[in-house]
């Protein structure tokens, strides 16, 4: 972007704001350069806000301290400077799903990662992800993946024994 002589500010969660609107040619050059790294430019406001919600949820779920300190609605409202009902409406209109469902999917993805990479117990994972109990984690895990966490752990263990990387 410096090579294109663009005036910009780096914002939190991977956002860039241009002080002066780039030309179509400049945007195309930026888009091509970012595509090499798997980065997509979002230009519609609704899409940008949805991506910011997803990014903020990812930060919250991955940070055990923050997820114990904040509930999702408070965290998103503070981080994004919008009311939670507004964020929820925009998210559900764009994705046809709720923020709450997205949070569950992110938590289950992290739970799978913790089983595979960290070899944590279900009790440790439930505590890390701020679940009220192992039973609650197990119920959401099964609903989301079709497997119980124990069955998932057994599959991963067998794959590791066979030298198959998960």
Question: Short summary of the structure?
Answer:
The protein is mainly α. It folds into 3 domains: 7-41, no CATH class; 45-97, no CATH class; 101-161, Homeodomain-like (Arc Repressor Mutant, subunit A, Orthogonal Bundle).
Description:
- This protein is mostly helical.
- It contains 9 helices and 2 strands; from the N terminus they run ββααααααααα.
- It has a two-stranded antiparallel sheet.
- It has 3 domains: 35 residues, no CATH class; 53 residues, no CATH class; 61 residues, Homeodomain-like (Arc Repressor Mutant, subunit A, Orthogonal Bundle).
- The chain is globular.
- Helix 2 crosses helix 4, helix 2 packs across helix 6 and helix 6 packs across helix 8.
- Oligomeric state, counting identical vs distinct chains: single chain
Strand content: under 5%
CATH topology of the largest domain: Arc Repressor Mutant, subunit A
The CATH architecture of the largest domain is: Orthogonal Bundle
Give the termini distance in whole angstroms. 38 Å
Strand order of the largest sheet: 1-2
Write the layout of secondary structure elements.
Elements lengths: L7 E3 L5 E3 L5 H12 L9 H18 L1 H6 L2 H9 L3 H12 L3 H20 L3 H7 L5 H12 L3 H13 L5
Antiparallel strand pairs: 1-2
What key phrases describe this protein's structure?
mainly alpha; Arc Repressor Mutant, subunit A; 166 residues; 2 strands
